[in-house]
Amino acid sequence: MKKIFLLVVSALAVFAIYSYTDRQDDKAFKKEALENQMTALDGSSVAFKDILKKYKGKTVVIDVWASWCSDCIKGMPKVKALQTQFPDATYLFLSMDKTQENWKKGIEKYDVNGEHYMATDGMKGIFGKSINLNWIPRYMVVDKKGKIALFRAIEADDTKLIETLKTLK
């Protein structure tokens, strides 16, 4: 019985580690993510692929967040430190807020500096599912060619995040 229990616990641990670390096959966004419509600050609708095109040739740090997310808010000083350490990167904030009003208030209240868009269908929508979004904040890095250099980090001071940005300078 102990062996079965240990086997189950071990399998769960491996699954948990795998689900929270980068996977080597996640180097490009899925078609659903690229075609997903986001809302710009001016209220217009724009496909995620067009957002990425706008920043091609630049290193892009994507911060998936929401104004209601306490971990996102607690992490903002770390994001500001990251912006200071890597000022040449573009910081793209993708909000999972439920309303544009809350999203815009959150940007102002928490002094979030960067490029801003809002997912129109929340964390469990098309975009969230396509990037396996199970927690926010979520940080991703896209290289200058538009490929995903880092698929997942949940802290803005994550060693993998910082090392990835250093290699892309």
3D structure, described in words:
The structure is a single chain. By secondary structure, the chain is of the alpha/beta class. It has one domain (24-167): 3-Layer(aba) Sandwich (Glutaredoxin), CATH 3.40.30.10. The protein is built from 7 helices and 7 strands; from the N terminus they run H-H-E-E-H-E-H-E-H-E-H-E-E-H. The protein has helices spanning 2-20, 31-35, 48-54, 70-85, 100-109, 126-130, 159-167, and strands at residues 37-40, 45-47, 60-65, 90-95, 115-119, 138-142, 148-153. Strand 1 (37-40) and strand 2 (45-47) form a beta hairpin. The radius of gyration is 17 Å and the shape is globular. The N and C termini lie far apart (53 Å). 28% of the residues are buried. Residues 9-25 have low confidence and may be disordered. Keywords: Cytochrome c-type biogenesis, Disulfide bond, Isomerase, Redox-active center, Signal. InterPro entries: Thioredoxin-like_fold, Thioredoxin-like_sf, Thioredoxin_domain, Thioredoxin_ResA/DsbE_sf. One of its GO terms (molecular function) is isomerase activity. It holds the Pfam family Thioredoxin_8.
